[in-house]
Amino acid sequence: MKIKLIALSVLFFSLSACRDFLDVIPETSLTSDSFYKSQADFEQAVGGIYAPLQGIYNQDWILNEMRSDNTFFIYNVAQRGGKPQEDPATFTIETNNTYTAGKWTNCYLIIARANQILKTIDAASFDEAVKSNLKGQALFLRAFAYFDLVKNFGGVPLFLEPATGYKDTFKARAEATDVYKQLIIDAAAAAKLLPAKASAPGRATSGAAYTLLADAYINQKSWADAETALKTVTMLGYKLLPSYADIFKPTNKGNSELIFDVQYAEGTSQAIYNALPYLFIPILADPSILTGVKPATQQNYGGYNVPTPDLLKVYEDTLKDQRFSASIGFYTGPSPLIGITSYNRTPYIKKYLHPHAVYGQTADNGPIYRYAEVLLMLAEATNEQGRQADAAGYLNQVRARAGLPPLVPGSQADMRASILKERQIELAFENKRWHDLVRSGLAVQVMTAKAAKIKANPQAYYYPAGSAPIATAFNITDRDLLYPIPVSEIITNPDLKQNPGY
Q1: I need a surface site. Which of 125, 168, 182, 483 has the fewest CB within 10 A?
Q2: Among 10, 100, 11, 12, which residue's Cα sits nearest to residue 49?
Q3: Eight-state DSSP code of residue 132
Q4: At how many degrees (to 10) do helices 388-402 and 371-384 cross?
């Protein structure tokens, strides 16, 4: 969907969600002027802003986890239909890539819906506390979408008003600094408007807004500002759960460690379930060996987002660190689907694989922010301000929960490396690693080293015997730190310039 069509469509759209954004209703021909009147109208409309979050999260593992040194894919010689999913891991992103286009479209859909609400809500007459909450959610989600866009594409067009005509849908790219400035304004405003407790499952809170604000500050290296926002979060009642595995259980949704997550529910009536765990297990004809649920017919997919040997080596003590067994499982057994007789202790993501009743459908939510990351961000912010003892204190809270001994404060450079390593382990498979490498300036170095290892020993990185990546794969340069603007946007908007090198 092109950005201009998204923006223009807001004039005519009736949001495809009820008060709970998981309840989907058919679109109608109502105009925004006739729709946005009552509290119920705005509650329904705000619910609709959340819906594209699932589309973003369903693809983020491709663009932000598999592209890093954390995960890779099992090369399936019998099924090359998955090549677009694999391309980000081999740094061969094309300007028409489905997944970068999907991120662009879903982020601007959030922005377009938020803009319509923010334009009209102040004039509406209903309870001011409810109105502030709804307005805060719209501001938070607009900030979230712009943050996602600027991290992945750099400077992007800034739309802060709903389109009133076709000409309003064409804009040049704003500078990245201006995008950051606007999303920080939005997140700060949202933090003041939102309640500490969510009004419904999955809804934004002041804690989510302050965490987003701090994340944006950290990406701008505004360390003191980030620390201020993060310390506010520490006073809002969040805490680490004693058991790392318990954080992600569908039976434990809304627990005290979760700050913001993407909601899923098991069920067939509306496409709101999470199918990602089935993509992440090895390619098995009968996945019930791992999932406990048999398919009606043979399954022919899987083997994506597979933990790499690089990641497995990062864990300093796989027996003591409870995050290892909670996050990663291993499978040894037959696989007649991809030309090999069996897997030999192949790792897979266990973090989101929990009991469920329906094949291909799980209720696992997608974590975006949780309290452990707040502590790790505090460690980073204080370390960058020269306070290594404070940084170690925050870092060691996370390590203690994992079952590891405390780290003694070292130099700023040593602590920086320790924090980055702890983030890699604690937040594994939560779609953080690629951007951690980019913002730390290590992406080219780390991924060049991974490329050399893959080419030297393809079978260690899940290529079947006798196969290997093509010679031009993994040739990463600074160009690859940002994704290309989708070609559909470039063609239809002459003011929209492409990122260099594409």
Answers
A1: 125
A2: 10
A3: H
A4: 160
